[in-house]
Amino acid sequence: MESRQLRPIMAGIASGSDPPKAVAIVYRSASEHHQVTKHPSPEVYFEEFGNNALNLGLYHWVDLAIQLNRCRIMNTTRHRREALFTENGIAIPFPQRDVHLDMVQPFKVELNTASSGAFASSRRTGKMTRYRAYISLCLIGACGCLMANADEHSSNVGQDFTRPLGRVDLRWTYQNRVENNEYDETALRLEQPFRLSERWTFNTRFNLPGIYKNLPKPGEHEWGLGDLDIQTALIRQFTERYSLGGGVRTIMPTASEERFGAGKYRLLVGGGLRAMLPEIGSGSFIAPQLQYDFDVAGDKARDGIKRLRILPTLNVGLPQDQFLTFLSSGDLRYDFNTQKWFVPIDVTYGKRWNNFITSLQAAYPIVDDMQLYEFKTELRVGYFF
User: Fold this and answer.
1) Does the pLDDT of residue 6 top 50, yes or no?
2) Element of type H or E holding 75
3) Which residue, 52, 253, 270, 337, is the most exposed by fewest CB within 10 angstroms?
4) What tens digit of pLDDT does each residue of 182-203 get?
5) Is residue 240 within 8 Å of residue 276, measured between CB atoms?
6) Pairing state of beta strands 356-368 and 340-353?
7) Are residues 251 and 380 both part of a single domain?
8) How far apart are CA 273 and CA 53, in angstroms?
């Protein structure tokens, strides 16, 4: 019996992907397996333009000294191909259908005025009503994401701390603080990961903020530089679903004015776990993190820092490289010195445009013992390189 067999395998990639790059990945996934023959070597062809995908064909000879090895070989090469596609940002398409609604007449909308009295009464309940409304919007947005993402694919949009991308960001943050004290920060952030092996990644991040702040005298403002923030992290990918990472952030008192920084050398030590959630949709994941923020040196006249930061982080992938991320701001914290909590609800909407990304975050506190801010928004524009 002939111990070698020719095995054809079809693979589809999304329209807009790079076919030569995908061909090289498919070839690599097969040639790396020790039971795929080197002579003759595997061959990959761009077969056709399918209805939902660009179809590639892999043709390779496998050594079937043991007949049952055939299934194992196919399984291993498919897993490897999926990992390489994900790593290189090549999407696997899903069937798509367009639905067109022909509406000759507009929808009829009626306003039930009987409920206006109840609504007016609810407005008088104060902040708790706004909290409930905000949480309701978050839940509605999450449900909408689940339905919209049922059959679409999302690539890496840079929200996953265990899959870092080389990038440079410009971030503008606005905070409305106590007694209408406004705070603006424009930060330049650079991030550069280094892949140590197939499973290990070392990531670096640099953040330099510029701050525009109200002064105590009404109508006066001042601009200055904030504290330099440097971060390093080591990340281990266990499977396609689970990854683990940990690292250290070092914040240095480089602010141009005392009012623009904490005046302390600080370390934030922490880590987290990421679990992909394909049950929700492609690109969705949960990535809880804990960080301990403490000072090690600096101005002794300034208050010491001992805080626990909590980042629950739920990301829901949307069609066309859009995303919604919940509870990722890092503002949820507990201060061990004052024994006070600050718990905000934050939501980030964003979209990746090939090598560019834009996002908008809004945050509102539901527990404000620390009086950090009354409202916060952050606009981000980034470039992947």
Assistant:
1) yes
2) helix 69-87
3) 337
4) 778 888 999 999 999 989 999 9
5) yes
6) antiparallel
7) yes
8) 33
